[in-house]
Structures are given as C-alpha cells and as structure tokens.
Amino acid sequence: MSQRLEVVNATRPPPVWAALRNEAYAAAKTESSLASLLAAVILNHDSLGDSLSYQLARKLGDQEFPAMSLRDICEEAYEADPGLVAMAEDDLKAVFERDPACKGYVQPFLFFKGFLALQTHRVAHWLFGEGRETLAFYLQSRSSELFQVDINPATRIGRGVFVDHGTGIVIGETAVIGDDVSMLQGVTLGGTGAERGDRHPKIGKGVLLGAGAKVLGNIVIGDYAKIASGSVVLKPVPAGCTAAGVPARLVNCPTCEEPAKSMDHTLADAVYDYVI
Q1: Which CATH architecture has domain 12-149?
Q2: Which of 48, 74, 195, 267 has its CA 20 to 30 A from that of 120?
Q3: Residue 237: burial class (beta carbons within 10 Å; 0-12, 13-18, 19+)
C-alpha cells in the first residue's frame, strides 16, 4: 500500500481527517484482511466529507435506493452546506474524547452506530430543510432499521454531540438538542399525547442524558443539567441541576460543571424533596 501518512506539526495533535487517515493506514498494515475496506472507505478519499459520504452510502444503500445514488445525495448536502462536515468532525471528536472504550477515530467512523445515525440525521435534516421531505423520511427509516436510532428529520441538533451505543433512541419532531450534549442508549425525547405543534423537549448545551432517560413534553432542560439513567422527566430542569427518579426529582444543584463531557453518572448523597 502506497498511502502516505499526513505530516502534522509535532507540537499539537493532528486534525481529525489527518488522524483518521493515519490510523487507517496503520490499521491496514496491521490487519491485512481489512486493508481493502480501509482503503475504500478512508484512504482513497481526499477529504472527510468525501469519505463520510462513501461510508453513509455503503451503510444505507439497498436494492431500492442504490449506494451510488445515496452517495450523490450526501455529496450534494456537504457541498451545499460545508457546516455539515464541520459538525461531523466535532461529533467524531466528541466520541473520542468522551468514550473511554474508543481507541481513536477509525473505530467510531467505521463501526459506531450512534455516530453513523447522527450523521445520517444531519443529511436528512438538510433534505427536510430543502423541502425534500419524502427522501428525508426515507433516511430516517433506514437509520431506524439499521442503527435502531429513530430521529425525526425535523429535529434540530447542535454540534459536538455524542450518541453512545445508540440502540433504542427516539427523538421527536420538534425536539431541539444543543451543542456538546451526550446521550446513552434508550433515551426518549417525546411528547405527552396526540397534540400537534411544538410538543417535544428542548435540551440545553452540555446536558448529559443517561441510559433509558425519558424526557417528555415541551419542556426545557437547562444548560449543563444531568438526567439520571431511567428517569422520567415531565417538568423543566434548571440549568446545572441533576434530575433522577420516576417521576424525576432534583437531587443536586448545581451538578458538575460539564456533565456531558465528564460522563459522570453518579448522584449526590443529598436528595431535595422537590418533585419536578
């Protein structure tokens, strides 16, 4: 294999794309049985956007919608809105920085369905904004089938978001998720009935949503709040607070400074008798 390692300034970590290529090159030399896959998905491309469009198309394509056609759609989205690739880069960094099981960038880029489902949603959301709703819902359906992550294409999601494991996540149409949020498997951001209109949660910056957390209704979860695993939240949670239980109660205010980045799921000893 004649691929060249990226040259970077030794005083700082390489950019995400350079690091991803370097890891792929090293992995291809170590594991020859995966060399063709690594070349096709990463090493044969000149940019993160090109590589990501190939990877999503490879995963999502089927007999009804061939991979080459899906790749064209992804490339069209990335060309029209380069911010989508920048957000994907921040998402990839978030996985590497917050998941202790993650050994580098190749691992989530190739194998982590939470990351891949989020990038599928970003393309679907762009399509939705362009009025191409049927195709947007097609991508939602494929993501649900393949990754067990069901995100309505109208949902607005910020950058640097970490979707850990992904299985069983459901996010409704009018939900909004801020930057630097982390969520684990089984999270639901849903409504409370059959009403239409703005009916889903608004998740602030840096919020940590624990495994199996259910946040229901048009309520605000403040910046840097923490929702404990298995909790059911039906009322707003102030910024910097932790909510736990069924129904959820505030258990400490403030919580740690950036729970989504520290991934600290522990609870304080003191429990305030305040049902939210």
Answers
A1: Orthogonal Bundle (1.10)
A2: 195
A3: buried
pLDDT per residue over 167-226, tens digit each? 999 999 999 999 999 999 999 999 987 788 999 999 999 999 999 999 999 999 999 999
For the chain, where do the domains classified as CATH 1.10.3130.10 start and end? 12-149
Residue type, 207: V
Report the C-alpha gap between 47 and 59 in whole angstroms.
Answer: 19
More confident of the two residues 1 and 31: 31
Q: Which CATH number fits domain 155-276: 3.30.390.10, 3.30.1060.10, 2.160.10.10, 1.20.1440.230?
A: 2.160.10.10
- Give pairs for 262-265: CB < 8 Å, separation 24+: 263/98, 263/99, 263/182, 263/208, 264/208, 264/226, 265/208, 265/210, 265/226, 265/228, 265/229
